[in-house]
Design a protein that fits this description.
With 171 residues, the chain is an alpha/beta fold. 23% of the residues lie in helices and 20% in strands. It is built from 5 helices and 8 strands, in the order H-E-H-E-H-E-E-E-E-H-E-H-E. It has helices at 6-10, 28-37, 58-67, 121-128, 153-159, and strands spanning 17-21, 46-51, 74-76, 79-81, 87-92, 109-112, 141-146, 169-170.
């Protein structure tokens, strides 16, 4: 069950790009895992979870294993597989060409953990090309988490219009 306040609000968002930012310990990772669970019953569902460095997703995978247990989601290597056939794949954006690993793929949902660690907006935009859908029930969406700081802090702040009154960001 989500925390009252920011977690509840972010899980209600319908925008194409969603940013859930804030200090450590605010439940951003768990919100992203829960957000993906909504579509685990659909056989065609494919999601991609990205972090700058793949090894940094170990905590995400451990949390996903626990949270998806009730839905019988099974972690197999770098994927979470559900009885329906739905899959969540994990990956990285370690270098400028890493996005090419995902070119030509269709991921209806994309989660980017620690977006502020991605150094350039161009790296982010190249990845967005894989967030698409040919399945009417699966509207493409991107769910990003961020902490203050990091190499991409300035472009993330600019893109999501984070000032005194965020436009698409959830604080």
């Amino acid at each position: 069950k989500p925390h009252e306040g920011p977690q509840t609000r972010v899980l209600q968002q319908t925008a194409y790009e969603i940013l859930y930012g804030g200090a450590r310990g605010g439940g951003k990772t768990d919100a992203g895992i829960a957000w993906l669970a909504r579509w685990a019953h659909l056989p065609e569902f494919r999601a991609l979870v990205i972090r700058k460095i793949a090894n940094d997703l170990r905590d995400w995978i451990d949390r996903a294993r626990k949270m998806y247990a009730e839905a019988r989601g099974e972690v197999v290597g770098t994927e979470v597989r559900f009885p329906s056939g739905a899959k969540i794949i994990t990956g990285h954006l370690k270098d400028d060409n890493a996005y090419t690993k995902y070119q030509g793929h269709e991921y209806q949902k994309l989660v980017i953990e620690e977006l502020n660690q991605i150094p350039t907006e161009q790296n982010y935009l190249m990845l967005l090309g894989s967030c698409r859908s040919t399945i009417p029930e699966l509207k493409p969406q991107v769910f990003c988490t961020a902490n203050p700081g990091g190499l991409g802090h300035e472009w993330v702040k600019r893109r999501f219009e984070i000032t005194g009154a965020p436009k698409q960001a959830i604080k």
